[in-house]
Amino acid sequence: MDMRTVAGECLEMWRNPYPHLARLRDEGERPVAFFCSYTPEEILHAAGLTPVRLMGAVRTITHADAHLQAYCCSLARTDLDMALAGELDFLEGAVFAQTCDTMMRLSDIWRRNTSFPFHGDLVLPIRMGEEISLPFLVEEVRRFRKQVEDYLGQRIWDDALEESIHVYNRNRRLADRLYRMRREKPGVLDGLMATACLVAGFWMRREKHNELLHQIMEDAEAGEAGDTERLPLLVSGSVCATPDLYELLAELDAEVVDDDLCCGHRYFDAYVDESISPEEAIARRLWQRVNCPAKHQCLEDRAERLLRQVGDSGARGVVFFLQSFCEPHLFDIPYLRNRLQEELGVPSLVLESELQSFSRGQLRTRLQAFLETIRGV
Amino acid sequence: MSAEEHREERDKEDKERRRIKSGAAMRDLMTKYYMEAKAAEGTDRHIAWITSGGPVEPLIAFGVIPVYPENHGAMCGAAHMNVELCEVAESRGFSRDLCSYARGDIGSAITRGGPIGGLPRPTFLVCCNNICNTVFKWYEELSRFFDVPLFIFDTPFVRGDLPSHHLDYARRQMEEYISFLERITGREYDEARFVEVAAKSLYASGLWAEVLACNQHRPAPMTCFDAFILMAPIVTLRGTQEVVDFYQGLLKEMRERVEQGIGILPSEKYRLLWDNIPVWYEMRNLGRLFMELEACLVADTYTSAWTFQEVETEDPLEAMAAIYTEVYLNINLERMADKIESLARRFEVDGMVMHSNRSCKPYSLGQYDLAKEFTRRTGKPALIIEADHTDSRWYNRAEVEGRIRDFVENLLAESVTA
Ligand code: SF4
Ligand code: SF4
Question: Is pLDDT of B311 > 80?
Fold first, then answer.
């Protein structure tokens, strides 16, 4: 299969991963859902489970209204809705990493109202990157491993875990190459396709995804870089449940040259150290990786990092794509926007997404207006 | 005197008899505190802004003046001034969906608006996320705005029993907190002083628990609308002698009322449990409505958050660490349900009113499940009303009042059929 076909399939999956996920089980896999990029997938992977990410869906809420108020983000609401509607019965369970208040409560609500065999919780500190929280985080990773072991009724051996760490590290290296490639070889692989190829990895075993990325890379490396007149942008936010934003930007002749998304660059940032004990190494990675706004990190301020990314990528504008009601992200917006404008002269746009009332038309109009101001037309 | 005048006179006397006298003492205490805090601005005294659930004892022990934006937010809300403050923050790009305490506080920091002309400028900030994860985002913003240091006391969420590595983490941060204070104030940690403050704090919180427990009597000597007001000192100044004195006085008054059979309502037909933060800007109207319906809110999950359980340990820092980690909003739904059930049984309530508070996710998400659990465990009904604790733009008075009326009337119907 050539690159275009593979990327096309990934895009298809991004639009609606659920039919594909439902098939995993028949193929002998044991899918366990996770929501947040702070989930130590390696542990699930080493246990023979397949971590799959739930990122919401465009749908009308029917069941979740009885458990979650309307002022809660649509990721939580649509995911819970699918679970309650029995549409996620292919899952063996779900893992909740403590990030925001919504996720913290969602875990209990989910556990009480569904009957998946496995339920995992990972409690995280909010102070990341500071010596004081590391022992706590290591202990939590250890406890999480134990939770999985207790559920399976058997141990996860260190060598299996090391193997999984290796697979995931390889995936991170490949993802990083994929991201660099789209900048180095414009015209060969665009932002939409690169992101689709990355996101598709959430719904398959990592070995398989590694093969896929590898193949993409080989093809892309052979391709000729072309010129692109497209306007370079950076997208920042939580997750893009659908490719719509990227598709619209492409239609409007803009190119996403980098991102600060939880389903993008923030997902594969930092490696697990393969030379130290696996639990500590996994904890260390979570602790030092690029910060999510639901965490506090002094080592490297989120704004510094974003500014640097915008500078390095040559983006001429930033689109903040957020979930409505998402406090961690919404809090950072004024500060980030000010700094982008004042220090780099880079304008930004804030788009809020509500999956249950998603309107592509509205999104398009706002993007168009924003791009016009940048282009100065 | 006409019969009419006679009745009015009697009503007035009755009202006077029911009035909680300690309210005046509390107002004096709080006024004095705010005046002192405001006067300290610009002097060499340290002022720290701290979250309501944060460990305040070290601050008191180090002679730092603690200031609570949430208490101030409640004040702004009650004075119907928080919306305009929120709007200031919103005009700076802060979303209307963020907690209205945070928005109002940011607005007030910018404009110095509100009933007391804003809070005194902090020299540093202390934030504890045992109530929510909003607070550290909010305090990050304050730290940038005032350009002052921020200490975060991080209390990870507790599912089930408090695991030892949680306690270790909290304990290590208590030590760090102390060193942070030593550095900032240039004073040395004095354990004896800390223990004294901590003991007073626990003692005051015990007194507060006893005050609240007086409402187990019928008729209840106060409603939780009174408790919402009378809790200000335990939130802001626990650890000081004045607070101990105040709650001793209040407890005495409550006990006398109980002995004399003085209820806060002329008649008390129903006893209800309240969940979540009060609707500050509606206290008067809601108070009136419940009174008219002869329903007394005898207990709530909010004010009882400041009744700490004593923990068994010789180590004062560890004790504080444990106490502050296991607070009501930092535990899972099952443990919250236990707490609600126990309040319901102890106070013999006929039902529960839950305020689904748009601004506060940790308090509100899960309420639908808690309501069901409450009914399952106690056999009593629960009502959920929609509001926001200080942003009245989300509030629909007619709708809320209508629902409360229906709810209480249904209680009546039930008691008839029962
Ligand atoms: S989008 Fe925001 S509110 Fe929703 S789960 Fe993520 S961090 Fe929490
Ligand atoms: S989100 Fe809730 S707990 Fe947190 S500051 Fe706001 S009102 Fe308080």
Answer: no
Report the pLDDT value the prediction gives residue A188, as an integer from 0 to 100: 85
- Nearest CB among B141, B156, B176 relative to A125 is that of B156
Amino acid of residue B180: F
Taking contacts as CB-CB distances below 8 angstroms, the residues of chain B near A354 are none
Q: Which residue is it, tokens 């449940």?
A: A241
Mutate to test the pocket of ligand 2, among B126, B275, B301, B363 (most ligand atoms within 8 A of CB): B363
pLDDT computed for residue B415 by the predictor: 67
Pick from B94, B157, B368: which is nearest to A67 by CB? B368
Could you tell me where the beta strands, DSSP code E, fall in B223-372?
A: 270-275, 295-300, 351-357
pLDDT averaged over every residue in chain B: 94
Which residue type, as a one-letter code, is found at position A131?
A: E
pLDDT at B312: 72
- What is the least distance, in Å, from the CA of A295 to any CA of chain B? 9
C-beta separation of B187 from B229 below 8 A: no
What pLDDT, on the 0 to 100 scale, is given for residue A289?
94
For position B382, what pLDDT does the model report? 97
pLDDT score, position A260: 96
More confident of the two residues B9 and B397: B397
Give the one of B140, B152, B169 whose C-beta lies nearest to A136's C-beta: B169
Task: Give the gyration radius of chain B's Cα atoms.
Answer: 21
Paired with B299 in beta bridges are B273
- Cα A200 to ligand 1 centre (Å): 21
Verify whether the Cβ–Cβ distance B365 to A109 is below 8 Å.
Answer: yes
Closest-CA residue of B relative to A70 is: B358
**pLDDT tens by residue, B92-104:** 999 999 999 999 9
In a mutagenesis test of the A interface, which of B126, B129, B137, B173 is the best target, namely the one with the most A β-carbons within 10 Å?
B137
Residue B24 token pair = 């005046």
Which residues of A fall within a CB distance of 8 Å from B168? 135-136
Secondary structure element (H or E) that encloses residue B128, with its range: strand B124-128
Q: Spell out, as residue ranges, where chain A has pLDDT lower than 50.
A: none
In chain A, the percentage of residues whose pLDDT exceeds 90 is 88
Q: Is the CB of A355 under 6 A from ligand 1?
A: no
The confidence score (pLDDT) of residue A299 equals 63
A115 exposure class (CB count in 10 Å sphere: 0-12, 13-18, 19+): exposed
Tokens of A113: 């109202």
Q: Categorize the per-residue pLDDT at B416 as very low, low, confident or very high, splitting at 50, 70 and 90.
A: low
Neighbours of A56 (CB within 10 A): 27
The three-state (H, E, C) secondary structure of A224-287, written as one string: CCCCCCCEEEEEEECCCCCCHHHHHHHHCCEEEEEEECCCCHHHHCCCCCCCCCHHHHHHHHHH
Closest Cα in chain B, distance from residue A331 (Å): 6
If phi > 0 it is left, if psi is from -120 to 50 it is alpha, else beta; for residue A360 that is alpha
**pLDDT, tens only, A219-278:** 888 887 777 789 999 999 999 999 999 999 999 999 999 999 999 999 999 999 999 999
Torsional sign, CA A264, A266, A267, A268? positive
| Maximum separation of any 2 CA atoms in chain A, in Å | 64
**pLDDT higher than threshold 60 for residue B418:** no
Closest residue by CA, ligand 2 atom 2 = B360
Q: Report d(CA A276, CA A295) in Å as an integer.
A: 25
